[in-house]
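Worked example

This section walks through a single chain of length 281. The input is the sequence exactly as stored; nothing has been trimmed or padded.
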Amino acid sequence: MDISIVVPVFNEEAFVEKSLTSLLNQTYAPKQLVVVDDGSTDNTVAVIRKVADAHPSVKLITSDDASVHAPGEKVVRAFRRGFDALSDDWDIVCKFDADIVFPDNYLEKLKDAFSSNNSLGMFGGLLTVANDDTWVIETISHKNHLRGPIKAYSRACFEDIDGIREVLGWDTLDELLALYHGYLVQTNKKLWVKHLRPTGASYSHSVAAAKGRLFYELGYGLFLGVLATMKWSFTQRGSLLASLGGFLGAWFSRKPKLVTAREARFIRRYRWSQIFSRFIS
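Given that input, the structure is written out below as tokens.
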């Protein structure tokens, strides 16, 4: 199976060399490795050029200007630039962040997982963070959710969900759409990767409001959406008032959704089934 990787970067000089080196030292080599700089203002590009000079398989795409900052959207725009630069011969496409260090068998495990199951649409490991002299699973991680920094898609799944979208919560939307189309989404709980820069624990008022709107845009419905908003605010320490305001504002104004009515019905049933299964277990 041919694996293609796109790594969006912005001001990652402290981490990008370690991350790329871990991908170049894999026991199963990627077919393509495209790094997309999104207008970095530090020495990120110089570091990547040094790696690319030693490894011609690394392709660097640069930009003089960073894309407009918007949570979720910015990184997807950079990914799409890299994706458009890929040749057409790939079976698996990966969107990896530049602050991740992968175990040397990561791509081999990924290849084996997709090769052994034609229904597998998305696959990845778990993010870990440094804790004194050891590595522990990142607090923000959910063991059944494949995190955005380490996404891998089969070709069929990626095409059926129409790629990833420039929205906050794209890495939730893509999973739900993959499940809607009948694909499996698998997180290998024994496959740990090192997250050199842990996910931020605080969220601005505007981001919290946008997160609330997202639950409406995913078709959650009123009661489920309020529950999801409250849970997110509690677990991620975001503003409950802002996130509820974002959700209810979108609800009462009936803003356009990111999903069709049929997809929304599936998403509601799936989310309620998750809630009920937790009570039963």
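What to look for: DSSP finds ten helices and nine strands in the chain.
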